[in-house]
Write a structure and sequence with these properties.
Blueprint: E1 6-7, E2 13-17, H1 23-30, E3 34-36, E4 39-44, H2 49-52, E5 62-67, E6 72-78, E7 81-86, E8 89-95, E9 97-101, H3 110-121, E10 127-133, H4 137-143, E11 152-166, H5 170-180, E12 191-194, H6 200-210, E13 214-215, E14 217-218, H7 222-226, E15 240-245, E16 248-256, E17 263-269, H8 271-287, E18 302-309, H9 314-330, E19 336-341, E20 354-366, E21 380-381
Parallel strand pairs: 8-10, 13-21, 18-19
Antiparallel strand pairs: 1-2, 2-5, 3-4, 4-17, 5-6, 6-9, 7-8, 7-14, 10-20, 11-19, 11-20, 12-15, 15-16, 16-18
Length: 388
């Protein structure tokens, strides 16, 4: 069902579903600069906002508020859905994202207007998954505080996105795995290979098998990956590494380069950071930090697709990260990003790794009551960093 456009009390403002002709206006809204720790960055969706959203949803819902007098898009949000494993069964799961308000229109209750649209358009399912990172103060203020007309927010727990630059001290990790990892010795019997067409049935089955341990895994059909479906834009079958033990698939990940559809561009450095950037970059070989690109360039990194193994297989998880980092380095980047729930046992290893950490809250929004009671509490929340 398509929701008709809604005229606001201000006669020049209309809320409606976005169409392809809105693409440039949406890209401008999304790319509004933000400053953090002396660095001004812009999250961009070039060359097309709609093409970038191909990887988020199987059923899209993009909404804009348009100022018809100024012929300008002044606010937006997305709330489409995709099939995921929920309680071990495939169901549609909404994901709310890209809430933006033009800086010159803030304070004019536009978020509340968007909330009214959410109320009439959020059904089947009537709740949405949402991730709010700690430094996104505007989104936290909009969604995590009770406001008239806005859906209620239900917190599920903390998550961490780690942009990994180095795997830390081998001695410390080995000692930790010797104490805690049941699979530490068995890892020697695990063989890895690049995914081939004949592996697709095993990959599909493995996703279903992992849904016995993790909740909210996207329900992938890897035949579509081999066919070049736009849901897998920027990644191909040969970018996946598979791990077998006794001919059984026990782990996998894909190395995903999203820079053809999504970018994090550096717009400006503070005078101090700008002056010391060359020295900082020179020292990264020792500090194992993420290099800072030139002003106007984008950050370069790979995101990890379906970084999955048994949640107690810490040694295998570490080996997969080591392989991903090594492959990324051979491709000239050497930086990989992934997201784990703090409830995931594999998260324990993050304490040894080096990189840029971004902590956030994973939760749900709904006008129809708390959805969390419907979820199996024994399952670990799974977050696909490339689809956040």
């Amino acid at each position: 069902m398509k929701i008709d456009s809604v005229q606001q009390p201000q006669n020049n403002l209309i809320t409606r579903e976005a169409v392809l002709e809105d693409d440039q206006g949406l890209r401008e809204l999304i790319s509004v600069p933000m400053t953090t720790r002396g660095v001004q960055i812009s999250f961009q969706r070039e060359p097309s906002y709609f093409k970038a959203s191909d990887i988020l949803y199987r059923h899209k819902l993009h909404v804009v508020i348009e100022d018809t007098e100024q012929r300008k898009k002044v606010a937006c949000y997305s709330n489409g859905h995709r099939p995921c494993y929920i309680n071990k069964q495939i169901q549609n799961l909404r994901y709310a994202s890209d809430l933006r308000v033009d800086p010159s229109y803030r304070g004019k209750s536009l978020v509340k207007v968007l909330g009214a649209h959410v109320k009439i358009s959020m059904y089947e399912p009537n709740f949405s998954q949402m991730i709010i990172f700690d430094d996104n103060h505007a989104a936290r203020a909009a969604m995590q505080t009770a406001k008239t007309g806005m859906p209620d927010y239900y917190d599920e727990g903390l998550i961490e996105t780690l942009t990994l630059t180095h795997l830390g001290t081998k001695r410390k990790i080995k000692a930790f795995l010797n104490r805690t990892a049941q699979d530490h010795q068995d890892i020697r019997h695990v063989q890895s290979c690049i995914a081939q067409l004949e592996h697709i049935p095993a990959m599909n089955d493995f996703i279903a098998e992992m849904s016995k341990h993790y909740n909210f895994i996207p329900a992938y059909h890897f035949e579509e990956l081999a066919q070049g479906h736009h849901y897998f834009s920027g990644i191909k079958l040969s970018d996946f590494i598979l791990y077998f033990k006794n001919n059984k698939l026990v782990g996998m990940f894909g190395l995903w380069d999203q820079h053809t559809i999504k970018q994090t561009k550096i717009l400006h450095y503070s005078p101090l950071i700008g002056a010391f950037r060359p020295i900082y970059n020179f020292c990264t070989s020792v500090t194992k930090s993420m290099p800072l690109p030139k002003r106007g360039d984008s950050l370069k990194y790979h995101v990890l697709h379906t970084l999955l193994c048994h949640p107690e297989s810490l040694a295998l998880h570490h080996r997969m990260l080591a392989d991903a980092h090594k492959i990324s380095k051979k491709l000239g980047i050497g930086v990989v990003s992934f997201t784990l729930s703090h409830k995931d046992p594999r998260y324990q290893l993050n304490q040894f790794y080096k990189g840029e950490c971004l902590t956030g809250m994973h939760g749900f929004i709904s006008f129809a009551g708390d959805p969390r009671s419907n979820f199996d509490a024994t399952l670990i929340p799974y977050l696909e960093v490339g689809r956040i």
